Amino acid sequence: MKKSYITLLLGSVLALTTSCQEDVSLEPIFFRPTTFTSEAQLSGQLAGVYNVLSQDQLYGQGLWGYLVAGADESFRNGVTNGTILTELYNIGSNEANIANFWRNLYIGAERASVLLDVVDIPKMDETARNNIKGQAMFLRAFYYYLLVTHFGDVPLKTQLTTDMGTNFNLPRTPAKDVYQFIIDEMTKAEPLVQTIQQTGTPTIVTRSAVQAMLVRVCMSMAGNPVNDGAKYRLALEWAQKLIASNAHSLNATPLPQAPNTPAYARLFINNMQNNANDPNITEGIWDAAFLSKSNQTGAFAATGFPVTQQLGALMGVTSPNASANAPVGFSSGTYRAHNRLFRLFAPGDQRRDWAIAPFIYRDNTTNRFDILRVNLTGGGGTGATALALTSPTGAISSIVVENPGQGYTSAPTVSFSATAGTGAAATAVVEGGRVTAVNVTAAGSAYPTAYDRPVGKWRREYELNVPQVRLQNNTSCNFPIIRYADVLLMAAEADLRINGSPSAQAVEYYNQVRRRAFGQNPRTPSPTVDVATFSVQDIMDERSRELCFEGVRRADLLRWGMLQQAMQRIQADVAANAPSTLQTAATVAANNLVQNFPRHALLPIPATEIDRAPAITQNPGW
């Protein structure tokens, strides 16, 4: 008999529950709970289905970090050519993280199957029963979505392990059939679950979550490698149903507790605070919940709650203070932005300096230290800002005026704040009361480059201390699995794919995302920001600007058939723009992928699974 005891907290909806669950990959199991007699037991089993989301290989780190970050948005600082890591494309088929990822997904699917097998037994309110049933159906389908997108053809197993006798040698099901199962199951789940207005939280599967994920599933199936183009129309139908529900909108104002931040930042501050301090949850659709950052102290001591989340610590603004009472919270700043992404943002786009931190912390205070800032002072005016661009050696090669300001009667003085570098000088040019240019007169040397900027999307300065200490490497930051901006951009893309040129409605979806990016109301037309049309390349770029570091870029590039080309561009960009000290870390993933792309389009089927079930064949190249 093989079993595990799962503990999970899901806020006000699911109680902290300990229950005996089946622990299943594809090997025989000889235990099955048969005593489900109450709604509480069903809720406990459902907690075990959700529990998989918080595992390290999923949203604790894997699905924003080492399983998916090997693309053209970020790189992992500190790695060498000898570092073995999934995102560096140099692992073998026996890599433990891959095996655990596969195993956890099948565990989640099996727990859902157990629940669906017994959900009709207890006497209870039928609406409540259907809600539990719908969540279980959706989660099982979602786990198969993660399997098929990462491994391709996978065994599609809905029969309980305990009903399979002794034959566990299941072959792989074609990816197209797995996708169709996912769509069918999610479609059946959609009317069963509650609306997000009823739950009041994006951490529970709601009708919005099902609709949004159906859009993503259909977009994946329409693209490479299945290439079922008919699914673009189905994706658009589900997107328009979600949009028409008026349950969601883009955040148009900052979080009240953080008034000096862009509206774009509101969702990510909410993530860091478990969405606890903001009644406005209209942009968030579905989050993976992480409600504890310690199982040793505080409210969750000795509960066995898994503490896995490293957002803000591994992927966060660099901060050296690792103490329990640190005013900001430790971050290694391991994940850095690629220069390609940094330069993709247009002047005035507020997303850049939130997603890619323009500062770091260097001491045990809350003082921020600018990585490289251009200061324009004096001249009688206000509002002018500029961005310094550097060469690989840290010389300031050019300065771009991002906001010309107003009211200048003379040229402001130009100076630089930076964590390193000396010797640069520049002069400003004023015309009509506005700063129209900043010209470099001395380039200086050793200034930071774009590659020195850490990911800043999730910031520990907003962390809620529950328990009242910080852990060095863990936070309780929720992760946005899918949010409204993603749905708008997928709807715009699906419309473009169907019609060849975007409809007026699709242009409006696209413009809503752009307006918010430039600090304007998403639903109010803007002659300075709005575009009249867009291309597939525009969608590709806008998705990167809006959704960077949220774990979707690699999947996007794969479904577009663009991953290899994107990584070739990274090789060229790093060679031309990265400092010598960061060239290896910034390019090792691209070098390994380009060298053998067919092998790395999919993850390997874990060698242990093939050993157990020889009918499971290996992916090409492994």
Structure report:
With 622 residues, the chain is α+β, with helices and mostly antiparallel strands. Helices cover 35% and strands 14% of the residues. It is built from 19 helices and 14 strands. The strands form seven sheets. It has a two-stranded antiparallel sheet with strand order 1-2. Strand 12 and strand 13 (434-445) form a beta hairpin. Helix 12 (484-499) packs antiparallel against helix 14 (536-547). The chain is globular, with a radius of gyration of 25 Å. The model is unreliable at 1-32 (pLDDT under 50).
How are the SSEs placed, and which strands pair?
Blueprint lengths: L2 E8 L3 E9 L16 H13 L4 H5 L13 E3 L19 H23 L7 H26 L23 H15 L6 H4 L7 H16 L8 H14 L21 H7 L11 E5 L46 E3 L1 H4 L9 H4 L3 E2 L8 E2 L1 E6 L7 E6 L5 E8 L9 E6 L3 E10 L2 E12 L33 E5 H16 L4 H14 L18 H12 L5 H7 L3 H15 L5 H13 L1 H4 L6 H6 L10
Antiparallel strand pairs: 1-2, 3-5, 4-14, 6-7, 8-11, 9-10, 12-13
Helix pairs in contact: 1-3, 1-4, 3-4, 4-5, 4-7, 5-7, 7-8, 7-12, 8-12, 12-13, 12-14, 16-17
In short:
Helices cover 35% and strands 14% of the residues. It contains 19 helices and 14 strands. It has a two-stranded antiparallel sheet. A two-stranded antiparallel sheet has the order 3-5. A two-stranded antiparallel ribbon has the order 4-14.
